[in-house]
Amino acid sequence: MPATKSEASHKRLLARDRRQQLEDAALSCIARGGIRAFTVDQVAAEAGVSRGLIAHHFGSIEGLLVAVYSRMFHQWREIMAHPRPDRLPIEALIDALFGDDLFGRQALTIWLTLWGEIATNPLLGAEHRAQYAGYRDSIMAALTATAKANGRQIDVDPLATGFICLVDGLGVQRCIEPALLSAEDARTACRVYLEPHLGPLAV
Amino acid sequence: MPATKSEASHKRLLARDRRQQLEDAALSCIARGGIRAFTVDQVAAEAGVSRGLIAHHFGSIEGLLVAVYSRMFHQWREIMAHPRPDRLPIEALIDALFGDDLFGRQALTIWLTLWGEIATNPLLGAEHRAQYAGYRDSIMAALTATAKANGRQIDVDPLATGFICLVDGLGVQRCIEPALLSAEDARTACRVYLEPHLGPLAV
Q: pLDDT grade, residue B154 (50/70/90)?
C-alpha cells in the first residue's frame, strides 16, 4: 500500500528534522574541538543517534561538512533578505556582522575551522565558491547603494575585495584573542576603511 | 671523562640541526594535511627519526607546535631588521607580505592551521601573544614613519588594527581560493585602505 500524502509529508518532515539535528551536533563538535572533533563517532554520539544515520542523510561525513558550511551562510542570507529602512545598507550589514551571533567565539571558531578545510576538500571548495559569489554580490550591492545615497563615486570591485578580507581578518583576530579586539574596535576598523570612500557612516 | 669544549659545541650544533629537521618535518605535514597530519607518528616518519626524539627536543608534540609558530614569524623579523632605504617603510612591508614566500599557498595553509589551534592550546596562545605584540609594534612604527615622510597626521592605533586584520583576511582568501585573489589584488586592497590616510604609495 503506497504511503498516503500525509504520511509522506510526515516522513519528509522527520528527515528534515533529523538532518538539522545532525548539523547541530556537527556544529557543536567543531566549536568545541575544531576539525579533529568532527568525526562520525563524535557527531553521532553528540546527536545521540547511530553512526549509520550520517551516511544515510548526507552520503558521507564530507557531505555533512558541506551542509554545515551552507548553514553558516544562512544567517547572512536572512539579513540581506530583510533590509532595514532606517540605515544605509552598509551600516545594517556592519551592525549584523559584528553583533553577538556572528562575532561570537563559537561562530568564528566554526568559520576558521571550515576555511582551514576548504583547500583540501573539493566538495567544500565547490560549496564555498557558490556561497561566496552570493556573499560578494550582496556586499557590492550594499557598497554601491551606500555610495549612491551619499552622492559618492566609488570603484566598487577593489573596495569590496578589501572589505570582505577586512571582515574575515577581524573575525580571525577576534577568534584568536578576543581580549585584543572588541566589536567596537571592529566597527571602527570598518569606518577607517570605508569612510574615505563612502562618506560618514553611523556604525 | 668530561666532554671537551669542542665535543660539547659539536653536540649543541647537532641538537640545533635536529630541532630544525623536526620543525621542517612538522611544517611539511601541516602544509600537506592541516592539523590532522600533525601527529607524533607522521612528523617522525616525515623526518625519518624515532618518535621519542620529538619529546626529547620539544618536551611534547605541543612544544613542537609552539616552535613551529615562532619559526613562522622568523621571516617577518628578518624583513623588519633590514629596512630598505629606497622605499617608504610601509611599501617595503607590503612588498614582503605579498611576495611569493609569505603569500604562497603553503605558508598560508600553515598560518590558517595554526590560528585554528590557538584558541584551544594555551601554550600556543602564549606564544601568539608574545609574537603578535612585536608584529603590531613593527606595523605601527612603519605606519607612523610613512605618515611622517608624507607629512600626514594619522591616528595610528585604529589604522594599525585594520591593516593587520586586512592582511590576515587577504591571506585567508588567497589560501581558500587562490584564483579569486592575486598578489596584485592584495596590494591594491592595501592601497585602497591606506592611501586616504597616508597619501600615495608605490606598491
A: very high
